[in-house]
Specification:
By secondary structure, the protein is α/β, with parallel strands linked by helices. The protein is 51% helix and 10% strand. It folds into 2 domains: 117 residues, Rossmann fold, CATH 3.40.50; 56 residues, Winged helix-like DNA-binding domain superfamily/Winged helix DNA-binding domain (Arc Repressor Mutant, subunit A). It has a 5-stranded parallel beta sheet, sandwiched between helices.
């Protein structure tokens, strides 16, 4: 398979099969590849520059909430991402759209509904199930959209540093992990704070943790 256009990243084989069936009916000559964890998805993306559409499982190994979505948007802005999950809470689905997903398909959806979602995305539209009410909290929606735009402005290296900040890593630890100088890390941290419009590392880490569905309780972010 030399020029795949679609990658399905989901750790449930049966749902991957269902998605493939819907994709075949919606996209002509759509070569599809699969990944069962986020690391495998990234590997496929690096190997195939022909990829255009990603189906990303909200809870697959290596993806914590919407961290995978924003990482893809940061590193590969030309990819279109459709979130899929058995978590069909309206708040969760709306949050996915706020953070930049083109659609959110519940795993309970039938093939007809999946096809409708894919067709809408291919037409350049944003799709959510019909029963999802538009989020009434405009302030929260705006905050999520602003954060998504700020994260997209980070360089891939800065994004990686931010994930380490959120994990409570010190500059010297980040430098070791990424094999760069500590002075370089400090420059990245300064740029991250400026782009996220926050004053310290703690706030930067908390901003990133908004992407997680269940942020760690009593988590400590090194200041």
């Amino acid at each position: 398979m030399s020029n795949p256009k679609v990658v399905i990243a989901d750790d449930h084989p049966l749902f991957r099969t269902a998605l493939k069936q819907a994709i075949v009916e919606c996209i002509d000559d759509a070569a599809t590849i699969e990944a069962d964890d986020f690391a495998g998805l990234l590997k496929h993306i690096e190997q195939h520059d022909s990829l255009e559409l990603v189906f990303l499982d909200l809870h697959m190994p290596g993806n914590d909430g919407f961290t995978g979505l924003t990482q893809l948007q940061n590193h590969y802005p030309d990819l279109v991402v459709i979130m899929v999950s058995s978590d069909d809470a309206s708040e969760t689905m709306q949050k996915a759209i706020n953070f930049g997903a083109a659609a959110f398909i519940p795993k309970s959806a039938d093939l007809t509904t999946i096809g409708q979602a894919i067709d809408a995305v291919l037409d350049g539209e944003v799709w959510l199930p019909a029963h999802v009410e538009e989020q009434s909290d405009k302030q929260t929606m705006s905050a999520h959209q602003t954060l998504a735009k700020q994260l997209a402005q980070l360089t891939p290296q800065q994004y990686t540093v931010l994930t380490q900040i959120a994990d409570g890593r010190l500059n010297k630890q980040i430098a070791y992990d990424l094999d760069i100088k500590e002075t370089t890390v400090k420059k990245h941290v300064s740029a991250i704070l400026e782009k996220l419009e926050v004053n310290n590392r703690t706030l930067a880490g908390l901003a990133y943790q908004q992407l997680m569905l269940a942020p760690p309780q009593n988590s400590e972010v090194t200041t």
